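SAMPLE LOG
Freezer: B-3
Tube label: C17
Construct: single chain, 427 aa
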Amino acid sequence: MSTVSSTPSLSSWLGRRPAILAAWCVVAAFGTYACMYGFRKPFTAAGYTGTPWGDSLKVWLITAQVLGYTVSKIIGIKIVSEMEPRKRANFLLALIGIAQVALLGFALTPAPYNTFWLFCNGLPLGMVFGLVLGFLEGRRMTEFFVAGLCASFILADGVAKSVGTTLLNSGVPDVWMPVAAGAIFILPLFAFVWMLRRIPPPDGEDIASRSERTPMTGRERMEMLRRHGFALVSILMVYLLITVLRSVRADFAPEIWRSLGFGGSPGVFTRSEFWVGLAVVVVNGTVFLIRDNRRGFLTSLWTCAGGLLLALATVAAWHGGMLEPFHLMVLLGVGMYLPYVAVHTTVFERLIALTREKGNIGFLMYLADATGYLGYCGVMIARSMFKPEKDFLPFFLNLSTFVLIASLAFTVVSIFLFSRRFPSRPA
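STRUCTURE (predicted):
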């Protein structure tokens, strides 16, 4: 009786205190998604070189997990967009439980057959972000909340690798390290999901400012796509390209840092991503201060363009011998994460608020994610066709240059098309 009655009272109490609610939402979302990374990313800290397959095995392991993650994003287009709010938390915990069981299977199955279990690990985890996002969207401070959520996949990526590297340095075998790392995050995960459950729904002022968010039917999803056409496709293309680049940087961070002279230093992952996360969260999180939805939407697109220009300038400065290795990784990370996070925090949120579409950003976000991870799977499969070089840095910088130029072109197209579609503030 006491547990049931305390839940609505805590939610109501939070709803009457905006500052405390803001901090509560950021901590709950950040913590939940950061814990998810503890079940997804630590395995990439290992080299898996003690097998007849050498470096190629890691490429196949990453490809298998990303393929599972991609299938999850495709499934999530339907599941996440149709999910009823009351079911989100339990479904989220079930998904992460399945992922941990898959990591146990990975440890118990000999290589290379344990590759299958990383596919099973990625399959449930791909829907976690959309479930957490559902607690935060459609509010006057959504950008601030989601910026905190996005900080988790910037910072937690480095933390997860640091945890994995620490376990390896402590003598935990490569194949047992991922499940051991996941076990570390189980109790914190339950605490943060408990916090998510207590977040009150959007109030009347939120709905008036950002529109009501509802589960979507298949017909409603298709109608939304038809209404926005190529203007939406241009954003999806930017997201696809940046997802490929961001994923290569994240999954092959040990190889890139080794090429830069930082091999065997587990703390470098966390230090670099701290500065990246801080810059990206501050820039994208403060867009909630822009009340006008048209101005906020176009500002988010210009933020994408600015980040891409920063990343291109960083690559050029590196080739010109003007940057230290640590500064290269930080500035390049900021440049690629600015547009990546802007899509999560603002672009789709303000598009729905501006048009008063019936639906939720989970649909658009998962459409973008499915597109992005399909592209990354293609890169990983192509990459596995030949043996990776000992020096991974040239491949990464060449890929960065191509992706950044193409992404900037699509961003300019999207700004032009949406500026024409919404030439002035709607009544």
